[in-house]
Structures are given as structure tokens and as C-alpha cells.
Write a structure and sequence with these properties.
The protein is 23% helix and 21% strand. By secondary structure, it is an alpha+beta fold.
Length: 97
Amino acid sequence: MFLGLRTVIYHAPDLAQAKAWYTAAFGIAPYFDEPFYVGFEIGGFELGLDPDVTGVNVGNNAVAYWGVADLEKAHARLLDRGAEPRDPVKDVGGDIK
């Protein structure tokens, strides 16, 4: 019945700033770019940016875990672009961090 997860949407009150950041972080332009929604296709999935923050408080935003070939490089790239980690990278076993 279910085909799997397809989209993660982040609420971004400053849509222009978020779009610029994700464009630089992932090295791609959005495929959909409107004042009400910006969509990126990344690895067969959609990362959406929604400027509507009605009813959104810190703590109830989306959390996504991205698969990467080289965690250290990907992590450094995001930090170089201004990302701030919420938690340190953790080894959870089975070569999964």
C-alpha cells in the first residue's frame, strides 16, 4: 500500500535565504521555485521549503537523516556553509552514524 517516504518539508520563514543556503549546500538549483514553496530533487527524494510558519514552534519541525557516501566531507561542507549541529555525530553501531 505505501510506496515509501518521498518528501521532507522544512519550514523556512526566510525562503530566499533558505533557498540560497540549500542551493549552495547541495550544489543544485531547485526544480520548483515559487513564493509559497521551493522544491529540490535530491537523490530521488524531495526536499521542500515552506515559508508558512503558522503554528510552527521550535521542536516540531521536520527531522531528516540524509544518506551520504562520506560523512566527514558532507558534515564539513554543511558546517562550512553555516549549519549548526544540534548534536554531535554518533556511532549507533553497524557502521551507521
